[in-house]
Design brief:
four-stranded antiparallel β-sheet; alpha+beta; about 45% helix; Gyrase A, domain 2
Length: about 130
């Protein structure tokens, strides 16, 4: 994991490019995934996927976040499973091709986490 820790570690992950979909990726070991979880605050390994549930003040705020995640996923061509429950949004990343978690899942989760933190900070300053 190259010593990725704290907010600096998250920023480091966000800066790393996502591997193009046509390139072969390897499934990460559970130990490696758990190492990345120390940087991905609130994320967990659940049913073989990187998973996090985000809480919002209302449905509209939740949908705005979902739309941002959707745009981000389309830009990097790595799409999560998303479940919306009124003001809660659950995001799950895993790679079908390897039936597990790859570096792209970690990097995409880091981008979603960064997006969430930025949105919360902007919202707090409104």
């Amino acid at each position: 994991m190259n010593g990725v820790k704290g907010n600096g570690g998250l920023a480091e992950l966000v800066r790393q490019p996502i591997v193009p979909a046509h390139e072969k990726m390897e499934k990460l070991s559970e130990e490696v995934v758990r190492g990345y979880l120390s940087v991905l605050d609130g994320w967990e390994l659940a049913e073989g996927a990187l998973t996090r549930t985000f809480q919002f003040s209302d449905f509209l705020e939740a949908m705005q976040f979902v739309n941002m995640v959707g745009y981000l996923a389309e830009r990097v061509q790595h799409h999560p499973d998303i479940v919306i429950q009124y003001n809660r949004v659950t995001v799950r990343f895993w790679t079908h091709a390897v039936d597990g978690i790859t570096i792209n899942d970690v990097l995409a989760a880091a981008r979603v986490e960064w997006l969430y933190r930025c949105e919360k900070e902007v919202g707090a300053n409104r």
